[in-house]
Queue: 3 jobs
Job 1
Amino acid sequence: MKELIIHNYYHQLFLFFFVIHFIGGDHELVVMGQNTKQVVVEEFKVGVVLDLNMSVSKVWLTSMNMALSDFYATTPRKRRLVLHVRDSNRDVLDASSATIDLIKNVEVQAIIGPMSSAQAIHMVLLGSRSQVPIISFSATSPSISLSQNPYFIRTSLEDSSQVNAIAAIVKAFGWRTVVPLYEDTEYGHGIVPYLVDALQNINTRVPYRSVFPNSASDDRIVQELHNLRTMQTRVFIVHMVSPLGLRIFEKAKQIGMMSEGYSWIVTEGLGSHLSSFNSSVIDSMQGVVAVRPYIAMSKELSSFGVKWKRKFQKENPDVERNLDILGIWAYDTVWALARAVEKLKSANVRFSKGTTASLNSSDVAKLGVSQIGPELLQGISNMKFKGLSGDFHLVDRQLQSKTFQILNVVGTGAREVGIWTHSNGIIKDISLVETAKSTYLTSNKDNLRPIIWPGDTTNIPKGWEIPTNHKKLRIGVPVKKGFNEFVKVEKNSDSYSGYKVTGYCIDVFDAALDKLRYAVLYDLIPFQNNDGKAGSYDDLVYQVTVQKFDAVVGDVTITANRSEIVDFTLPYAEGGVSMVVRVKKDMSKDTWIFLKPLEWKLWVTTGAFFLIIGVVIWILEHRVNREFRGGPHPLYQWGTMLSFSFSTLVFAQKERVLSTLGRFVIGIWFFVVLILTQSYTANLTSMLTVQRSDPTYSNINELIKYGSPEEFDEAFSKGTIKGGIDAAFEELPYIELLLATYCDKYMMVGEIHQNDGLGFVFPKGSPLAPDISRKILSIREEGKTQKLKQASFKSKISCSNKDAFASSNSLTLSSFWVLFLITGLCAAFSIIVFLIVFLRENRDILNDSNSTIRDKIIDLLKKFYEYDENRMITYFECNPACNEQNKVIVNGDQHAAETVDTGDSPPRIDNSPSIASFGIVTPQNGNFNTARRNSTTLNADYDIGYFTATSESDTDFENSTPRDSDSVSDVRTSALQHLMTHDVDLQGHREFEEQ
């Protein structure tokens, strides 16, 4: 029994020394199992370089240890990772020294770490020299070139992979300027070129870059933040790691930069650690939008999180931290390395020592070369499996992921507001990945859930503000001599600049600002020197580049040269240059051309004078001329009056004017009518024969620009003979105003030389320019610019309302007013003379003391309407044959018989032959004088000779003679009896008719 005990004692002692031998000599470890079953497990040394004085390093170490436990707890393994941890002390040299120590002294086959990209840059050189893979899940800077460092493996996402997600957020809210804030390290600088490129692709400018040293004091941070406050931009992208990033937000809150109007976006450097920050840190970041890689929640990850929390609190009871994304990547990194080591085919895990290194060589020269390094590098690079973070898949030795989570810091933590993917852009939920069709360049803010912005508001920050050192924008305006409808500058002591500026350009600018969702205050400042002399438009634009003006509002033409130094809005007025010439209308096809020779005022005046002259002639003639007495009805006289009046237009009046005053008036009127008709005929002929003229100038250099519509008109009026012009060359907006002013005189012809039109001027990259451009498009689509133009040009836009008869070639009333004045004065003079004579002849009525005024007026009107028997004038018409044959011998004397125009023949007497003519009037004393008769009876002092001719007779009037059986006395007696018997009314008989 005692010998058995001694045997067992030596046997166990042998096993103890055997194990010690394998541990010291990197041999396999023999593990004794139950029933003396032995399993040999090879130890695989792995170095870990972290900043152990940082609490986050403890988070990652816990994850790595749990990965080892979970990996080796499932199935038996032939190799086991042994972690050798070193502290880099947050220093590049210490990290390098730790690497040298691990490779040279411990002979690790791989190194996990370091924390920072600056440390990794030096460590990867050592790894490449020794063929030891350097695996990092936290060195994310793209400044570390994987192609130049073949033994560097990144099991996390490169920082540049998130810039498109950030640009999508900026584009979604329409921000045009962004300022990045980053730390002055490899990590901070590495992302900047990629971020700027991504922002430029969406037309967003980076006017300034704010860089903070890692060791920046609080005063340095506050000073830089105050500098940012004085700028226009209010959108900031923070690319830092804690604790520097957290200090930035703490100071930003203290100076009021975490208030309404500001927008803060943090990259993965802070976004991935949001779950680990305490309540005071979260409070200082309220309203921040964060971007971090998206890791889908799974049962495995949820279970791991619970176990990790329990283990971490047990190991670090004094540290309050939560599992973050880098902790998950640390777990997957160790798992991937363990799987790659397990699959190694080579059993040679030793280092080969160089023979050329001397005793005085440095430690780097004394580093050995791993014999298994190339195979291990290849195994990790090709590793694919389902990890806690999702699909673990390295492409070119780098983890790939195209999905990012967008978070909003609000309340006590961060909540998801959207997802960004490379192929789908911004979407509200990951479940929409398969159905969304947009890309990040067309992302829309509506695809995000509501965001609580700094200042605890849902109002979207506009992205810029007027700087605190500029309360209002200083906007320059041109001082113009002409075309003031666009911009008009007047002195006004009540305004800031001492001037009042109005016009179409100002109205359009105000209309665009009214549509913005934010207010813009400005002062309009005329661009002129101390003497009041206006500067040129090129000089005005240049003032924006030297920051004398914040913008220029006016009729500034968009040109290529100007756009090189400033930004223009979209044009608010049509662009182009064309030619203007005089209008010569082709009237030959106009239906109403016969009315065109005279303007409507002249037509109306002429018509009125026709009526006036007709009335005047009737007044002067109706008492002495039976031609103006008319027929049995009073309206007959109105017809006579009107027909006489308008028949004078063609000199075809039927009635004769017999009174002296009437002939005086009608003579003057005939002269006026002659001039009017000849002028009308000449102008109508011109309109029918003269065609629209074609321009004779086609060279721009031959034409001169003018400053106002009035200058154009004056130059055209002079013509080339007097130093004027026949054509003008001008921009379309000014041509439009010219044509509005003189629409009937000028026209635009020829080719339009295109340009971009009129726009507003802003500095390069101004955030206001694109906003104003969008609003200009909006008001143009609504037709508001046209309404504003009509309001500004209201004193000019009258051509469209002119009478259709009006024409630039029409004769106007101003050309003939003297003739109408003379005619009116002559007519008035004649009427006055007539009334004086009339009242004098009837003064007995006026002097009648027994009559009232009313009776006197009635008597005068009756007298005015009656025949004037003392002045009645008649005339006779007879052809020469009649004058020779119609002779009557009375009392033995032969006298020339004068026929009386008695009008229509009297009615037949029973069955007597029709009367061919009658009317030989003789006085009782036998003298033939001009006969007069009133409307009802024959004067007793006159006898009438009566001739008859039967209708059956072959003889005509010229051959008719008194019947032989009738004496002259019998004829007179018979005629008088006939007229008295049949009550013949001789008033309407006028023309002597022959049968």
Note: The CA atoms of residues 916 and 995 lie 6 Å apart.
Job 2
Amino acid sequence: MSRILNHRMRSSLRRPSSWSCVDKRAVAFSVWTGRSVLLHKPLDSYQIPRRRYGMLIARAVRGVLKIRYLLLGGAVGGGMTLNKKYVEWKDGLPEMGWLNDLLPDNEQWDKFTTTLLDAKEKIGDQFQIGVPLTLSIHSDPRLREAGAVRAAELREWLAQRYEDAVAAAAVKNATSSIEPAPKIVNNLQSRPAPMSAKSNADETAAYERRVHALQEEVLSLQARYQRELQRLEQENRELRQQNMLLRQGRQPSTKKMKRSLIDMYSSVLDELADWDSGEAGRLPRVVVVGDQSAGKTSVLEMLAQARIFPRGAGEMCTRAPVKVTLSEGPYHVAQFNDSSREFDLNKEADLADLRKEVELRMRNSVRGGRTVSNQQIAMSVKGPGIPRMVLVDLPGVISTQTVDMASDTREAIKEMTKQYMDNPNAIILCIQDGSVDAERSNVTDLVSSCDPSGKRTIFVLTKVDLAEENLANPNRIRRILEGKLFPMKALGYYAVVTGRSRKDDSIQSIREYEERFFRSSKLFKDGMVAAGQVTTRNLALGVAECFWRMVRDSVEQQADAFKAMRFNLESEWKNTFPRQRELDRDELFERARAELLDKSAELSGVPAAAWEARLQKALWAAAAQRIFAGIYLPAAANASEDVDKFNTSVDIKLREWAENELATLSIQAGRQALREEFSELMSKSSDSDAIYEPVKKAAVDEALSRHQWEERAQDVLRVLQVNALQDRCVASRGEWDSAVSLMEDALKERLKSTEEDLKSLAGPGFRERWLYWQSSSEEQNRRSEVKSELERLGSSRPNLSYDEVVAVRDNLRRRGVDTDNEYIRETWKPIYLKQFLQRALSRARDCRKSFYLYTQQNGTGKECCEVVMFWRVQSALRTTANALRQQIGNREAGRLDRELREVLDEMSSDADMKKKLLSGRRVELAEELKRVRHVQEKLEEFIEALNKEK
């Protein structure tokens, strides 16, 4: 397609060699200015076609230039993020100010065009061999038609390129990462007027080549922008995919960063920090031991090349084991394993913060009156030139404990030191203070007992500068470094200087002082000690070499031990828990959590009828005792067949109950119903694992205990209940029958309870005594006699008169039963209540047929007033149940769900709680199996990386 377009452009721009200089220059100026130069003079018949052809070429070239600017402008405007690049792009656009220097002003232009026209008229007759192009086009209609067709094709091509540029500029995904477009060099330079036909042909060919080059440049620029936009679209799709994963709570896949060997090894040691598995987990590490204030911490700081530990004047500083992973890196930084903060060791402020953090962690580990702790503090130090190894700094061994220490401090330090040194693969870095007498050392005997052959011990003599000053016999230092003074053996002996008793000295200044001392010391200058045995630099190289040799010799053996342990655990799991997956505590807890939250979400799906039935049942269970003992029975006793008095008493007592107690009682009943419904939902899960039950029960109980009903709900309920109790008009037969049923059920339940009380007072009856061989006590026989006498009395009043009591007592005395008046009255209460309930139950049965009579009296009748009272109570409880159901659905279920989530979140972060709730061999075996697998995988990864480094 591009070849066809180029051919058409060349054919449309081809000119005959017989053009005059005036015609060529006119066309050239038309290209520069975009308009004809002959507008200042009248156009004759042969000038009009020439002007049209020149303007056609000018429009073509100007369109090409316009496409270039449209592409650049469209790319800039395609995205809002390219605003910052606009100034740079504008500066990169071609400078068109040179046209002002080349083009003449108006007066010169008029003079020049007049001269050209006059010259053309004078010499026009001399060129009869070839007709000018414009005249030929004007005179020959075929040429005119061909030029019109070519002009139409050229306009179509330019329109297509313009649409492509606009489409490319409309892409919205362009960002600021687009490269700045290179400057487009203007290829349209001024051309000298041709002097001959050959020069005219060469000029035309050169002009066509420049137009073709400009076209190719525009197309290449468009292709470059298209490739850049495709790249940005791909990046945008990846970003959208990552955003979608984050919204779904999933982490996008990240590239696994390559870790150093020492970091991989240190992570394995962290996994085994509290491992208790015999020979397994005995991986090499450098254990730094020594007497208190012997310089252990100073040696470690010299190896780490930074003052990273707190210092104390004459008191114990190291109170817990500190594991330090040293590795080489581009920046000198330190970081705790459980923290993301990096401390820049080149900044004094960060160093001070690091020392404070170490001190704080140590103090937190020795709470409860202890002086030292077994809790390990893990940190890593990276920097240029730092040797790769793992060291454990232990508290210094003491010979005497002060009064401010715990009573077991000395033994605790020795046990901790022996525990770390008993590892057969541990490298013991024994630090001895050279400024004190060798006989005062406590640590050398301890080291000798753990490593009698000295195959993994390195002896370090510190403070050699002070020793040289204080010792009268320098030969003593030589004997120490030759291993002839102490009864212990070692792989190597080193002498170092780790400071000048100045807290503010930097590591670099201490190292320079150390090197100066050993260069100037008479002891070492005389060759009494080898040069490789001095300075912390040589010590670091020796310890690192020994450490990695020990690692290479033992790591595969430890990996095999873990592989065997894993096989044994997997076999036990398959035999004990077949067809079950190994789930640790975290996985089991998450499953229990998911089931709880699913059941909690089902609360909103409980039908309204089920909620109201449960709530009414809970409300009646909570209010029944108060209704009988506080309202119904007192009102009936005081009324003594006076209906008006009964209704008045009931109104007063119901209002007091509604205003003072009913709302609170309703909230308690609502909470109880919510608890029961939630507990039933939890128990409906038939496929739930029994191991989850302790977690589920503990979480539900804690969430329900925290759940408090909304306070303003009581005020709303109180208003609704007072209004419901004021209504006395039963609207329908169904409500009347429901109230009668409620009254009958309540009376029957109360009557049954009263009869059981009387039975317990009077003892078993004739049937129980003969059929079930039950007997009565002396007190029950006495109460039975009083009961029989009171029943024969036939009183219908709730309280016996004095004469009635005296009569009953006299009758009982004649029968040989001696009682007092209070005993008789106490026995009469359940008897009267039983009689009253029997009569009330009979009235309730009669009132079931009295609804028609009630409606005829418009609710003003005095019959069946007890049924109306129970209907009022039932209506209030029904209204309360409806309000509670709405409250549960709208607010309380959601609040309970949030409280349950909070409880689960707290439990998930409490390892002790999960260990207590999820226990048993199944969980312990899964936990151990998971941990062994994890350690084995890390060991295999480390071994693979170690072999690659070899």
Note: The mean pLDDT is 76.
Job 3
Amino acid sequence: MNLLLSKQAIVIKKARHVSFCIEARRFANIPGEKKSTAEEISALLKHKNWNFLLESSEIPQKLSPDVVHSVLDRNKLVVNPKRLLDFFDWSNHNLGVTQHIDSFSILALALCNSNNFTPANRVFDEMLQRGYAVTDILSSLVKCFKECDSFSSKPVAFELLIDAYRNKRMLNEAVSAFLGFKNEGFSPSVLCCNTLLNELLKGNKMELFWKVYEGMLEGEMSLDVYTYTNVINAYCKVGNVKDAKRLLRVMEEKGCSPNLVTYNVVIRGLCGTGTVDEALELKESMEAKGLVPDIYTYSTLIDGFCKKKRPREAKVILVEMTDRNLVPSAYTCGVLINALCNSGDLCQAILVLEKMIAAGVRPNAVIYTPIIKGYVEDGKFDEAKEIVQDMWQKGILPDILCYNTIITGLCKVGKIDEAKMCLVEMERRKLRPNSYTFGAFISWCREAGNMQVAEQYFWEMLDRGVAPNYATFTSIIDGYCKYGNIAQAFSVLNRMLEIGRLPNVQLYGILINALAKNGKLPDARNVLSELYNKGLVPDVFTYTSLISGFCKQGNSEEAFLLLDEMCQKGVRPSIVTYNALIGGLCKSGDLSRAREVFDGISGKGLAPNAVTYSTIIDGYSKAGDLIEAFRLSDEMPSQGVQPDAFVYNALLHGCCRAGETEKALSLFHEMVEKRIASTLTFNTLIDGLCKLGRMSEALELVKGMSDRHPPDHVTFTILIDYCCKNGIMKEAEDLFQQMQERKLIPTIVTYTSLIQGYHRLGDKLKVFSLFEEMVARGIEPDEVVYSSMVDALYREGNLHKAFSLWNELLDKGLLKGHVSETLVQSWCEKGEISALLASLNEIGEQGFVPGIAMCSTLAQGLDKAGYSEKLPMALETMVKFSWISNSMTSTDLITRCQMDGHTESVSNPPKQSAFEVALQA
């Protein structure tokens, strides 16, 4: 600070010295003609009609800045300063060039010396308008002041310059002027300094504020209550209540008594930092000193206690404010009413409203809104609507927010008809619905799954000229994504772009998440690129959605690339991100890499949660490493994570897969005792018992399932599948009947088990009957069912229908190559190859023309079944009926089959049990 002042002083002194030298040289060398002109003007200025005399002479042609300055300098103590100002204005009109800066300074000082402060202010304003630098003005004013001893008793001119800068909001210059004058030994009055401090405080120019304050202290100025109050206010403004309280004590120690404003500033500062109890104590201390709190004091305390969610204490303060006859403002009452409503004390809020009205304070719609909201949150919609009607009767106009509060509440609880009636009344009252009004209806439709009606509200909103807000766009786009209509979601997005609304990160995240969940990862990647192009940075939710999508598809490499990408963008992965990676790696069988990720979590500043542990434990359990799975589950409590139902179920499943029945039963009983067993738990153990052939125990377990965890479709599917595989079809039929009696809908897995079971027994009628029933229920058959149907038709002798269905399924990609090959191999069993070749000839004669895919699969199937020597005969039939060209060989067909992907080039994955397939379904 001292260095700054020293530098500024040097600049001012140098500027003053240079200016003084220049002026001295100029006046020493003023030509005789200019000197005589100045003397002539000085003589004429003594006459009342000086203006006329000057205009009638040749003086206007002889005017120059030097002449004007000489006239002013000669007459500053002789001629009335107002006349000098008039002459200065006259010369400006006739001169046409810029006056000397010292002319302004002499004139301003002369006017101040004679207490003509208003015209002096005008002179300073003109100096500022002419753009003189603050250092030049300082130098000139100080020089002219010190050259005339008669000016020494009137340093008020310096204050006027500071005020001139301050009034024009040139606060930097005002502070520079203050510091410059102080360094020259001039001290502006405390009033001038206080006014400047106050202006700096209002303008939030805190650095300049402290410079002025420190300058006052260095100048040993006598600070008054206004100075201290300004400084205390400055401390409070930045939350430094500690120094504010210290200064309050200092001013009292120095005999400067704080006034009500001072205390109010500190009370406001304390309330602003949340120390409301100390603020209340200060108010009491103030009263003890004879100062009476005013409306501002009470309002500040009420607002402070309300913000701390202590409305009851706030109400006590309000009561005290009224037993003193101080009428609270509508704002103060509104703050208290809002706080009471937010704390659930609606009765007290209404009581405050009644007292407010009784005190003559007129409430407005803003005050009524929290009460309306309180009734709505309590489900008291009639009371909320009565409040609105009461407002109309009292001439208080409810606003759109009052109606939106009721409409939103009604929509949330599904009372859509009442919400529509509110909308009708609102429009009848000439209140125009806004985006929040329509947003409430759209949200209800989305939650109800009725996106068609949601879209109708959306387009009605646009037709009425109401621009949807981000919440509305997000709601409808999220709804379409939630119900799988991604194309429509993008249609709404395009509409959003058309009206000039750019999607935010949240919206892009919703779209990316929907695409990733639906397996459309290339599209999700494209949306991510668009997000980058808009200059946006995806959030952790968006990245995690994509990573999870790639993990579910087994593409862990792409998932890790995304992980690196998000880290490079400065987005910190969450535990959910790592959980997705671990899950994907476990699913793809890469357990060692999954463990690497798991072990590295703590180094990322994160802690594994229950999902993390259950995922990795499930991975080890499915891999058959029960020792590590149980070790991890034992480790969980020491890491602050308790094993939950998911962990226990994963361990139970692992034990059942490994045939560790006794360990599985022990886990099961432990889960029942801990009351964490679920239907899934029972199903897991039932599946394990069935695999071991302990059907009777499994059935007993089913009988023990209670209302808390009743059997579901998976339970019955497990049992039905076991019966079908073991040829116990009567028991399977009974279980199927029980399932339907319990209103449980059979799934594709249930029907597949039954169809395969009857197919093995050769009961074609049951196979066809079950197939028709399944289709009638709207269940899409899988390739196992389709292959069973083709095989049943073939063995029944309905060759045309069998081969037609088989050909159609191959063309549509509904049958994989290895399934078709299995069909061919089964038809070739027990030396039935001749029958198969005869069948081909028969369907050819019936006019059936299969596609190249079926011909290729036939050739591949015969080759794999060990009948390659019969391939020429099959080929001859295909050529005979023009199914293939006569130039095509059996090798061509087999190669074609492999190239088209009709056969699998890798080993088949381990076959899943009906329980695992049912879970996925």
Note: Residues 2-28 form the longest helix (27 residues).
